[in-house]
Write a structure and sequence with these properties.
- The chain is of the alpha/beta class.
- It has five helices and seven strands; from the N terminus they run ααβαβαββαβββ.
- It has a single domain (42-183), classed as Vaccinia Virus protein VP39 (Rossmann fold, 3-Layer(aba) Sandwich), CATH 3.40.50.150.
- The protein is 36% helix and 22% strand.
- α3 links the parallel β1 (59-63) and β2 (81-86).
C-alpha cells in the first residue's frame, strides 16, 4: 500500500504548529522568559556598542545577557562597567566563571533574575535583544528609571512608539542585522 505524499506546505505548517505549541508551553512554564537565547554575532555586538557611543567609565546594562559577550566587550574594549541580567542559572554561572577567570570582577556584575525587576537608574546604556512585544513590556521601566541622555540599543527589534536617533544595518553570516539606538527621553 502506497502512502500519500505530504506536501512541503503541510510539513511547514506542521512544524510551525509544533513550534507555536512549544513556545506556548515555554511561556506557561516561565512567564518571565521574554526572548529565546540567541547570541548576537560578535560584529553586531561591537557595532551596538559603537552606535551607543559607549564611553570609558560609563555603566552598561545588558538585559538578557546570555553568555555575557556584550559585557566582556564593554569592559575590555570600551573600558565601561557592565551589568548583565539573565534568567538562566546555567548561563549566569558560566558568565560569572568567565568573569573570575579573566579577572574582571571590578568591571562586570551578573545578576540572575527577571530583567523587569532590575533597577536601571545607574545605566548610561541599556542593550537589548528581545522580541518586539518584550520591548513593549520593558518600555515603562525604561521611561521611569533611565535618566535623560541614557541610550537604549536594541538588536533587530524596535521599541514600539519610539523614534530611534540612529539605525545601523550590518550584514553578518548572510543576514542583515538592524540596530536601533534611542536616547532618553525618547522621541515619540
Amino acid at each position: 500500500m502506497r502512502r500519500p505524499a505530504i506536501s512541503a506546505a503541510a510539513m511547514a505548517f506542521g512544524a510551525l504548529a509544533l513550534w507555536i505549541g512549544a513556545a506556548s508551553a515555554l511561556q506557561r512554564i516561565s512567564p518571565y522568559n521574554l526572548a529565546p537565547y540567541v547570541p548576537s554575532p560578535e560584529p553586531v555586538v561591537e557595532k551596538m556598542l559603537e552606535a551607543a557611543d559607549l564611553k570609558a567609565g560609563e555603566t552598561l546594562f545588558d538585559l538578557g545577557c546570555g553568555d555575557g559577550r556584550i559585557l566582556f566587550l564593554a569592559a575590555e574594549k570600551f573600558r565601561a562597567n557592565a551589568v548583565g541580567v539573565e534568567l538562566s542559572a546555567k548561563l549566569v554561572q558560566q558568565t560569572r566563571d568567565k568573569v573570575r577567570k579573566l579577572g574582571l570582577q571590578d568591571r562586570i556584575t551578573v545578576v540572575e533574575g527577571n530583567l523587569l525587576d532590575v533597577n536601571l537608574r545607574t545605566a548610561d546604556v541599556v542593550t537589548l535583544y528581545l522580541m518586539r512585544m518584550s520591548n513593549e513590556k520593558l518600555k515603562p521601566n525604561l521611561l521611569k528609571e533611565l535618566r535623560a541622555g541614557a541610550r537604549v540599543v536594541s538588536h533587530d527589534y524596535e521599541i514600539p512608539g519610539w523614534k530611534p536617533i540612529r539605525i545601523e544595518r550590518l550584514l553578518v553570516h548572510q543576514r542583515t542585522h538592524t540596530i536601533y539606538v534611542y536616547r532618553m527621553p525618547p522621541a515619540e
